[in-house]
Design brief:
The protein has 172 residues and is mainly α. It is built from 5 helices and 3 strands, in the order αααβαββα. The relative contact order is 0.13.
Length: 172
């Protein structure tokens, strides 16, 4: 029987530990110890249900984070204008977005990004068609919106998660 590594998902371990500390609003020793225990044991218990751990590339991840934060700010303003304006200006639409992504974490992140950006909600991921269905509050051109999602988010997610593996000492 193959042994599970103690830190098979180090990023998840760190995220859980930091989240626990933020929820506790405390850096007391008892909370630090409990955060470490939670961060280590939850991924260990879920090891068989989690996809293999990958180390995402940092530079495109930072670019994606900046882009998503900017888009959330801009979308909030656009949605506020739409909601406060005349209702006849709204053009809701269902937009299918074909996926080039294959990594499950990358696909989940794309769905999360779409849902967190005001004015859009990802409703389903169709694994057979390999697409995600997006509902847009206001969409004049569904093809252009799908292209924008692919260009703004999917290309960076591909660069983060689906880069070819590199040997030790090779440059990215």
């Amino acid at each position: 029987m193959k042994r599970k590594p103690w830190l098979g998902h180090p990023l998840l371990t760190a995220l859980l530990a930091v989240s626990w500390l933020l929820l506790q609003h405390s850096l007391e020793l008892v909370h630090i110890i409990s955060a470490l225990l939670i961060g280590i044991f939850i991924p260990r218990m879920l090891h068989s249900a989690l996809p293999p751990a990958t180390m995402p590339r940092l530079a495109p991840a930072v670019r994606l984070a900046r882009r998503v934060l900017w888009d959330i700010i801009v979308s909030n303003i656009a949605v506020a204008r739409l909601v406060l304006g005349p209702q006849s200006r709204l053009h809701p639409a269902w937009v299918p977005v074909s996926l080039a992504l294959t990594h499950p974490t990358a696909i989940a992140l794309l769905a999360t990004i779409i849902t967190t950006t005001p004015g859009t909600v990802s409703c389903t991921i169709d694994e057979k068609r390999h697409e995600i269905l997006v509902h847009a509050l206001d969409c004049e051109d569904a093809v252009q919106m799908a292209a924008d999602i692919k260009n703004r988010y999917e290309t960076l997610l591909l660069a983060i998660f689906e880069h070819p593996s590199r040997g030790i000492g090779e440059k990215a």
